[in-house]
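Reopening: Pectinesterase inhibitor still failing for me.
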Amino acid sequence: MAKPDFLTIFLLLLVLNKSFSLAATAQGGESLISKACRKETDYPDLCISTLEANDVSKKAKSYESLCGAAMVVLKSQLEKAYLFVTESLAKQTNSTPSETNSKTKTQIQGCADGFQHAIRRINDGITAFDKKNYEDTYSKINTLIFESLDECKVKRLDMFQNLNDVTDAFANVVLSLLENLVPAFDKY
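Support: Ran it again with your exact input. Result attached.
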């Protein structure tokens, strides 16, 4: 009898893995991530793709743990955004001085400050979440969106437009998910 080659084994494992995955979803219905994102957020595709790309959120067993994981994902996004903006600031600082360069540098510094404030607020929000103080958590994320992230958006720097849009959209996803945990939340 011939030995199976690597490709045959790989394809067999791939089919088996897909079968087990489909069976698990069929038994439990729609995944927690998919259900929460489709029901609670205005950006379900962004929510699903972002959270399914994260191992911690994929392993979430409850809505509450999914919200906690979403906050950690947002924190990671904010830290990456801050790093990108500060690297851009360093490049601007090292370039030839000019009046335009000075104005741009000031605008980039404002963006960096905004992301730094957002990181502080997400850390405060995670601390409140860990204490099950969901109202305070919601308040911190709301402030993060409407104050900290706006610090960069109002600078209107094209180089950060996509970064701002995606970060803001996912922060709104997290805020929407948290609404479900706040007792007697009044949306109006």
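The chain has a mean pLDDT of 80. If you still see a failure, please send the error message rather than a screenshot.
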